[in-house]
Amino acid sequence: MNTRRAAGFTLIELLVTLALVGLLAAIAVPMADLAARRGKEQELRESLRSIRRAIDAYKQAGDEGRIQRPVDGSGYPPSLRVLVDGVADLRDPAGRPIRFLRAIPRDPLSDPERQSAEASWGKRAYASPADVPAEGRDVFDVYSRDPRSGLDGVPYRQW
User: Fold this and answer.
1) What is the pLDDT of residues 112-149, one digit of tens each?
2) Quick check: 1 pLDDT over 70?
3) Model pTM?
């Protein structure tokens, strides 16, 4: 009598396969989360760098006499919106505006549906101390409002 074995997988073979797939998933998911977080942190660095560069360019233009600035002002922009909208160039006969940013980048760690790009950033005024940043008449610096720390252990607010 010739008995044929049914074609297919045994229960043990399926369990071993599932265990291996589960192990691979357990390794891959944290690595994917880490890669996504690194990407957000890189985007945060680039956004902070571009805004801070624009703030410094605005201050330099004021120091060079290219834009109107109040006598009692610090020379820093009154808002981030001014960096995009531009300010009249006093040296240009046509009075064309100098623009310092094309658009205000959004804080990549903020909720995009809750607030605008400008409101996503914490702003520090020139008169505000560095350890307790507060908004004021101008924008001296920006920081992320996210309460977490980066992969390097430094809180995002201090970047």
Assistant:
1) 777 889 999 999 999 999 888 999 999 999 999 999 99
2) no
3) 0.80
Considering only CA atoms, which of 32, 33, 52 is closest in space to residue 44?
52
Rounded distance between C-alpha atoms, residue 94 and residue 3, angstroms: 97
Averaged pLDDT, 71-91: 92
What is the spatial distance between Cα 99 and Cα 74, in angstroms, rounded to a whole number?
19
Q: 3-state DSSP call for residue 97?
A: strand
The residue type of 21 is: V
Question: Distance between CA 135 and CA 23 in Å, rounded?
Answer: 49
Cα gap 67→62, rounded to integer Å? 5
Residue 26, exposed/middle/buried by CB under 10 A (0-12, 13-18, 19+)? exposed
Sequence-ordered alpha helix ranges (H) in 79-124 = 80-85
Query: Quick count: other Cβ atoms within 10 Å of Cβ 72?
Result: 6
Q: How far apart are the first and last CA of the chain?
A: 79
CA distance 111 to 101: 22
Q: How many helices (H) and strands (E) does the chain have?
A: 2, 4
